[in-house]
Design goal:
The complex is a heterodimer of chains A (198) and B (572). In chain A, 38% of the residues lie in helices and 20% in strands. Chain A has 198 residues and is of the alpha+beta class. In chain A, helix 7 packs across helix 8. The radius of gyration of chain A is 24 Å and the shape is elongated. The model of chain A has no long low-confidence stretch (mean pLDDT 87). Chain B is of the alpha+beta class and 572 residues long. Chain B is built from 19 helices and 15 strands. In chain B, a hairpin with a 2-residue loop joins strand 9 and strand 10. The chains are: A alpha+beta (198), B alpha+beta (572). At the A-B interface, helix 1, helix 3, strand 3, strand 4 and helix 4 of A face helix 6, helix 9, helix 10 and helix 11 of B.
Chain lengths: 198, 572
């Protein structure tokens, strides 16, 4: 019968429409703005639409999500910030768009390099969020952030992040990436043990 | 070898034959007609520039020929002097060489004698020089290869645009003044259109008009322009114009180290970044040899990701084909719902939804995180089959889709092969050519699946073949997820600087849009000497004019939609 195909199509649209409301009713008020609701909407049992009402509700960010690197510092017993970065430069060398600039510290007397950066810049307009700096860092010092809401009014003034802007405590890292943090800590402990053994 | 002119290429790491320019046509004709190498996959040029006094600098044009029945490549090379690089054009024998030769002329400056329309294709006429030549430098040139020396250890940051203010960030050919410039490229284009039009008009003398669809046009899926000449509503000639998104991916690739190119490949066909990674990883692994053979689990993960990508790409393609048909956004949004869930899996595994950067030489970057495997199984066993069936029910029998699609934009199998069309476009024309079967790579030979094929070669079949292919991908995914072994995901320790021995490699995969190939020449340095991408979207466009001539202007939009292009890949 001519027109049957169109009717079938309209049936599909109608089911979509109805399914959404049926699901809404079944989940009475919990389908939106709750973590379970978001999880349910994208699960296999859900029917109907799963629009996310951003920015009122946000999809949870998976741990591996990567957006703009940050530098990690530890806080020692005196409350001082200890950069993990040794300014070895591997991140700057492996960076595909070459958006990392590092100034190495020199000992004022001997002129020998000291393993910490004086300055560390990332041009976030150029950064392509590939995650190589974090992947190849031998000191677990640079990791990818989760903060994706970075819009600003003046990119010329604000989009080159310096060391101060980039540095975040290890506790923050633990908060956003607990699994990776645990792996890193184990590796660091192993390294420290080796060093102590020598 | 039957031809005395053919000489085996004896350089270490190279294969194929060197042909003198004078006998190229003869050899290519014999290969096509007698040996069955009917599919000209890739045409590209390499600049072998050397400072060494004793060696000679030359250009080499490289042709990769395949049989449409399957099997390995026959590689032909023509070496020509750098001073006067002239090579006979293969357009007569292989119409699919058309855009590729224009690209080689544009970017490398090789003249193809006998090419009917040898104009620049990606650059514009006010562009100075041929950028892929090794002695060409951009205005904002920093160094020959990354990493740049000023980033570390004394990195004083600066802004690129401060170094290259507007007006000083461009270079023009000698005697070219942008202020007094009169356009000559477009008149040339229109002249070509007119030539074609004269051939068409037979009887009554009606006025024909030229219409530009694009570059700003909702149906072109990006910044793409089609100059069409119309007789009433009938197309008499059509020329695609592209390059608006051109960024010279290949030159960037030659300045990059090998590993740096991986995230850049994501940006080619940004809807299918896992497939792009796959092809590039295969090409480099071919060069590096067995020491980077990926472990089992990595091979499975690669296949799983590539097939998920194919499904998400086809969902997108179907959705937007329907948009082009005028069914504005309801089918598209239904289709990309499930794509969203596939992207969620990519995000949880690779770290990014679209710019995955997931493959490494010798494996993949990360293992699956906890809890993702059940989600993948739910998706593959429940949601995706449901969605594909729903789309099938929703659209396939729809009378409007059928009447707009059946018999529209027909490509015969002979034409599809001659024009080097690959992927769904080729298979919808009745040629069961799928690289996963024809020239298996990775572990595709272990899976049971059928090569989807349809026989009418029209828009409707190109829609249906995508539905078929998604079903086949699901079959592969089900097997792969069932057999996914435990174990390592990477061979070796993933160094930030890889050593690639000198030689060449052509790695190709069956991408969602067609044959995606990477041609890489290494000279043992940290960066590739030549890095060429055989982009399926770009080459599939060669047949667009053939598809459209004689049809109504409204069908142009649908024909383009049925090829499924992504401008990031077309323009590179």
């Amino acid at each position: 019968m001519y027109g049957l195909g169109i009717l079938k199509g309209m049936w599909v649209t109608l089911t979509h429409f109805v399914d959404t409301f049926v699901d809404d009713l079944r989940w009475l008020g919990r389908r939106y703005y709750t973590p379970e609701g978001i999880a349910h909407r994208s699960s296999k049992d859900s029917r109907g639409i799963f629009t996310v009402q951003y920015p009122e509700e946000k999809l949870p960010v998976p741990e591996e999500f990567r957006y703009i690197p940050f530098l990690i510092y530890d806080i020692d017993e005196n409350g001082e910030h200890q950069d993990r970065c040794t300014s070895c430069g591997i991140c700057a060398k492996v960076c595909p768009p070459q958006c990392i600039w590092i100034v190495r510290t020199e000992d004022p007397e001997t002129k020998r390099p000291v393993p910490e950066p004086v300055e560390f810049f990332i041009d976030i307009d150029i950064c392509m969020n590939c995650g190589y700096c974090s992947e190849y860092c031998p000191f677990q010092a640079i990791r990818m952030d989760h903060d994706y809401e970075l819009s600003s009014f003046d990119r010329h003034a604000e989009h080159i992040f310096n060391k101060e802007r980039l540095s975040k405590p290890a506790a923050y890292y633990n908060e956003i990436r607990p699994v990776n943090f645990a792996i890193d800590e184990a590796e660091r402990a192993e390294k420290a043990a080796k060093k102590a053994g020598n | 070898m039957r031809f005395s002119a053919l000489k085996r290429d004896e350089r270490a790491g190279y294969e194929g034959h060197i042909v003198p320019a004078s006998s190229l046509l003869e050899v290519a004709k014999a290969l096509r007609d007698e040996d069955g190498f009917d599919l000209l996959s890739s045409v590209t040029a390499v600049d072998y520039l050397t400072d060494n006094e004793e060696e000679e600098s030359f250009f080499e044009v490289v042709y990769h020929l395949y049989k449409s029945t399957g099997g390995g490549a026959e590689v032909l090379r023509v070496q020509v002097p750098r001073e006067n690089p002239v090579v006979p054009s293969l357009v007569e024998l292989y119409p699919g060489a058309d855009f590729q030769e224009r690209e080689a002329w544009d970017l490398m400056g090789i003249k193809f004698e006998g090419h009917p329309d040898l104009r620049r294709i990606l650059m514009w006429e006010g562009f100075a020089g041929h950028p892929l030549r090794k002695d060409w430098k951009e205005v904002y040139f920093e160094e020959e290869a990354k990493p740049f020396g000023n980033r570390w250890p004394g990195g004083q940051v600066y802004r690129v645009e401060d170094q290259n203010p507007y007006g000083k960030n461009n270079q023009y050919p000698d005697g070219f003044d942008p202020e007094s410039w009169v356009e000559t490229e477009d008149p040339l284009l229109y002249e070509n259109l007119e030539k074609a039009a004269r051939e068409y008009t037979e009887d009554i003398d009606t006025e024909q008009v030229v219409v530009n669809l694009g570059p700003q046009h909702p149906s072109t899926h990006g910044v793409f322009r089609m100059a069409v000449r119309l007789d009433g509503e009938t197309i008499v000639a059509l020329k695609p114009v592209m390059g608006y998104l051109h960024r010279n991916h290949e030159k960037i690739g030659e300045r990059n180290t090998y590993i740096m190119n991986m995230p850049f490949t994501d940006r080619l066909d940004y809807l299918a970044s896992m497939s792009n990674n796959f092809g590039y990883a295969l090409a480099v692994e071919k060069l590096m040899g067995d020491k980077v053979a990926p472990p089992e689990r990595a091979e499975y993960l690669r296949v799983i990701m590539a097939e998920l990508t194919r499904i998400s790409n086809h969902l997108w393609a179907i959705g937007f084909l329907l948009n082009d048909l005028g069914a504005f956004f309801t089918p598209a949004l239904y289709a990309i719902e499930e794509r969203e869930l596939i992207l969620d899996i990519f995000e949880a595994t690779a770290g990014s939804r679209m710019m995955c950067n997931y493959f490494r030489f010798g494996g993949v970057a990360r293992d699956l995180p906890a809890g993702i495997l059940p989600r993948m199984k739910d998706l593959v066993n429940e949601r995706l089959p449901r969605k594909i069936d729903e789309l099938d029910l929703y659209l396939s029998e729809n009378e409007l889709v059928r009447s707009r699609g059946e018999g529209v934009g027909i490509i015969t199998p002979e034409d599809a092969i001659a024009f080097s069309a690959t992927g769904p476009v080729l298979r919808a024309s009745g040629v069961p050519y799928d690289i996963r079967r024809a020239d298996p790579y990775s572990i595709y030979d272990r899976f049971k699946f059928d090569v989807a094929v349809r026989y009418h070669g029209d828009v409707y079949d190109r829609y249906m073949i995508r539905v078929d292919e998604m079903r086949q991908s699901l079959r592969i995914l089900k097997q792969a997820l069932k057999d996914l072994p435990e174990g390592e995901i990477l061979t070796g320790h993933n160094p930030y600087q890889v050593r690639v021995p000198a030689g060449e490699a052509y790695g190709r995969v069956e991408g969602p849009k067609g044959e995606l190939g990477y041609y890489i020449v290494s000279n043992g340095k940290p960066s590739p000497w030549r890095y060429h991408v055989r982009a399926p979207s770009f080459i599939n466009l060669t047949i667009l004019e053939k598809m459209c001539v004689g049809q109504k202007v409204a069908d142009v939009v649908v024909n383009l939609g049925s090829i499924d292009i992504v401008l990031g890949e077309v323009d590179r």
